[in-house]
Design a protein that fits this description.
The protein has 172 residues and is mostly helical. The protein has a domain of 90 residues: Arc Repressor Mutant, subunit A. It is 62% helix and 11% strand. The protein contains seven helices and four strands. It has a two-stranded antiparallel ribbon with strand order 1-2. A hairpin with a 2-residue loop joins strand 1 and strand 2. Helix 3 packs across helix 6 and helix 6 crosses helix 7.
Length: 172
């Protein structure tokens, strides 16, 4: 049976895709047509490509993001700064830090100004791991560019930068 004729709850799937099954004919947009749905689908697909690249380098996407942030830091960072940058809970960030310390990719030295906190820095092993991860991510980027176009991808990244700035101004 052709895909357009396959049924979902008795309605052709094509109708779900174009919104007619959910009230688009009455002027209401379906979830499938909404901006948030399109962003969710796009971010999910992109995360899939990035997760595959990270898997090749032997790290998770959050760990890769932590390595990226720490590699770009001009001074040691606190766990709170890392947590905010990653958008993860302090508990999840703490587990990530433990993993990085255990594998000797970062140091977590007691902050001399606040003995309750730590200062995090990449080690040589951490820099080497970040270079490996960066290479895998660059290969993923090349694959994405080949299917989407370098200029379009750059323009999209610019728009996403603006979206991040706007979202940072809105309470979560």
């Amino acid at each position: 049976m052709p895909p357009a004729q396959c049924l979902k709850r008795g309605v052709p799937i094509a109708a779900h895709r174009n919104g007619s099954a959910n009230g688009a004919a009455n002027g209401h947009h379906s979830l499938q047509e909404s901006t948030i749905h399109r962003l969710l689908v796009g971010s999910h697909r992109l995360a899939g490509h990035l997760n595959s690249a990270c898997d090749e380098a032997g790290v998770s996407l959050p760990l890769a993001r932590a390595l990226q942030f720490l590699a770009g830091a001009t001074e040691p960072v606190t766990p709170t700064q890392l947590s905010r940058e990653l958008g993860r809970s302090p508990a999840a960030t703490s587990e990530l830090i433990k993993r990085l310390v255990k594998t000797e990719q970062i140091t977590a030295d007691v902050d001399p100004d606040d003995r309750r906190s730590f200062k995090l820095m990449l080690t040589e092993a951490g820099h080497a791991k970040w270079n490996e991860v960066r290479g895998a991510l660059q290969q993923a980027e090349a694959v994405i560019e080949s299917g989407y176009g370098g200029r379009r991808l750059e323009a999209l990244a610019g728009e996403l930068d603006q979206l991040v700035v706007a979202l940072d101004k809105v309470p979560a």
